[in-house]
Every structure is written in C-alpha cells, then in structure tokens.
C-alpha cells in the first residue's frame, strides 16, 4: 500500500508556477509560495509543541538603552506601513485602514499625521511607504490623493505586494472562477514583504538612494511609531533585524508569544494557530511566555 505523504504522491506545484509566471509574478514570490505549498501538501501542520520550546529569559528594555539618539539616521530610514488587509470582518469592503478611529479620522489619517509630525519635529523628510495589495491599492491611493496630495505625489509611496493563486482544498490545484477570474487570487499576507521588495526592484532602488533602515508595522497599529532611540540602538549594534515587543497582559493571552526553540536556540514567534489544544493552558500563561 502506498504512502500518501510520499513525494511521488504529492500534488505538483507546476500548475501554480505556470499560472503565476503567466501573470508576470516575480520569481522571488513564486519561490516563496512554492515553499509554502510544499509545506502544505507534505502534511506539515505548523504546530509548535510546548515541549520543544523554552520561555524567553529577558529582552533589552528600552529604558536601559543609553545611546544618545542620532537624528541623522532618519535620512537613511524608511517608514513602511503594511496595508494589504481588507476590513471585511468589520463590515468594510475596502482597506481596513480606512475604518474611522476617532473624530472622523481613519487609521490612515492618523498615520499620515504621525509621519508629517515626525518630519516637522526632526527636520528630516523621513521617507514614507505603503505596501498595498491588489485589494487595497485603488481605495488607498484615492484617499491620499484627496486628503494628503503632498504625500500622494511623493515618488514611491506605494509598493504592491504579490498575489498567489487560491487552491482547491482537495486537489491543491489552482482554483478557477470563470465568472470573475480575479477571485482566483489572494494576497499572500504581510510575510510577502521581503519577496515584494526584491521582486519589485524597490530594494535595489532604496539601497541605491542611500536608505539603510526600514521601520515596518501594520497600518492599524497606531502605537507602532518610529522611535529614534531604538533606531539609534539598532544602528549602533549593527543588527540585521530587530523587533519591538510589549509585555503580555491578561488581555493578550490569546495572542502570539515569543519563545526559544530548543533545537537551535533561535527566537521564534508562536501564534495560537500553532498551538495544540493540550498546550493551550501553557500558551495562555502570561507568567511563563
């Protein structure tokens, strides 16, 4: 009797590759989706057992950073907001960031004001970018052209994230929708940032223009603003990646947490979907993780 998980019986990625190449999608995005596809068809669940991880002992606290802030770094820094999500779960048929937050201001209003305020405060024209999806691009650009034309006129405001084919849940073949072929595609999520930067040519362009640092956050996270003290610390220690974290509270116990993977001692993020039912209590224990 054959093994359903053997490589001989796995669904082929080639139909997806052909479809993506025909659509003109960048090789970097195709390669990233191929990796995800192979993980799916191999039966990989993505579950991270509690027995394979350890709590994070301690992180650097912002209050302990003594390096004097260096505002000159802002000329080499890009602020990028991840803006690919629709607000369908909130009854919105456009970008989630166009949801009103307070006094008529949307997430994007407040983001635009934060950027302009930061430029005024530091006297540096900090570059601002959005990573939109094919679902949010038109609404977002129209919003900026109407309300913040100076920002809309800046070169390179938008970078489009890639799109990937939806799959048949049984065969893993690319799904089809003859009545509306656009329904055959979906955004791959914000992890597409790296493939989009490379495939679009924007990474090369930013580096050639002298940019070295990029601050990235979700468009609906108004608490995530560029902190000059953290940026200076990041530049001083010459790290390749740094993530700003908050201590979990009782309100955060169902959200993701950091952990140390025992096999290689790497710092990882475990989300609720990566947790089995038997590990749920440990996952939600904010005194442990």
Main attributes?
four-stranded parallel sheet, 11 strands, about 15% strand, disordered N terminus, about 30% helix, about 290 residues, alpha/beta
Textual characterization of the structure:
The protein has helices at residues 14-22, 27-41, 107-122, 137-147, 149-152, 193-199, 202-208, 228-237, 280-283; strands spanning 53-54, 77-83, 100-102, 105-106, 127-132, 158-160, 164-165, 185-186, 213-218, 257-261, 267-270. It is an alpha/beta fold and 289 residues long. α2 (27-41) packs antiparallel against α6 (193-199). It is globular.
Give me a quick take on this structure.
Helices cover 29% and strands 15% of the residues. It is an alpha/beta fold and 289 residues long.
Low-confidence segments: 1-7
The percent range for helix content is 25-40%
The rounded distance between the terminal residues' Cα atoms is: 44 Å
The SSE order reads HHEEEEHEHHEEEHHEHEEH
Strand order of the largest sheet: 6-5-2-9
Estimate the global geometry from the Cα principal axes: globular
What value does the Rg take, in angstroms? Answer: 21 Å
Strand fraction equals: 5-15%
Quaternary state reads single chain
Give the overall pLDDT as a whole number.
Answer: 90
Count up the helices: 9
The assigned structural class equals alpha/beta
Give the biggest beta sheet.
Answer: 4 strands, parallel
Please provide the count of β strands.
11
């Amino acid at each position: 009797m054959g093994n359903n998980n053997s490589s001989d019986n796995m669904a082929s990625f080639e139909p997806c590759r052909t479809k993506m190449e025909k659509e003109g999608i960048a090789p970097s995005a195709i390669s990233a989706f191929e990796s995800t596809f192979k993980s799916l068809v191999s039966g990989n669940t993505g579950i991270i057992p509690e027995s394979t991880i350890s709590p994070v002992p301690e992180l650097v606290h912002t209050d302990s950073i003594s390096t004097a802030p260096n505002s000159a770094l802002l000329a080499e820094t890009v602020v990028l907001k991840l803006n690919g999500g629709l607000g369908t779960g909130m009854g919105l048929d456009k970008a989630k960031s166009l949801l009103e937050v307070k006094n008529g201001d949307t997430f994007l209003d407040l983001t635009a004001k934060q950027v302009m305020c930061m430029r005024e405060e530091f006297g540096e024209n900090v570059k601002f970018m959005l990573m939109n999806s094919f679902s949010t691009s038109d609404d977002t650009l129209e919003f900026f052209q109407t309300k913040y034309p100076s920002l809309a006129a800046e070169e390179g405001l938008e970078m489009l994230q890639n799109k990937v084919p939806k799959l048949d849940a049984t065969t893993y073949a690319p799904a089809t929708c003859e009545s509306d072929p656009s329904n055959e595609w979906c955004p791959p999520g914000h992890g597409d940032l790296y493939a989009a930067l490379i495939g679009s040519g924007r990474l090369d362009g930013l580096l050639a223009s002298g940019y070295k640092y990029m601050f990235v956050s979700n468009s609906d996270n108004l608490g995530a603003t560029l902190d000059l003290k953290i940026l200076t610390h990041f530049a001083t220690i010459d790290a390749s990646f740094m993530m700003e974290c908050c201590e979990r509270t009782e309100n955060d116990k169902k959200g993701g947490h950091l952990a140390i993977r025992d096999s290689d001692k790497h710092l990882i993020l475990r989300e609720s979907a990566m947790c089995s039912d038997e590990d749920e209590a440990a996952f939600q224990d904010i005194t442990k993780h």
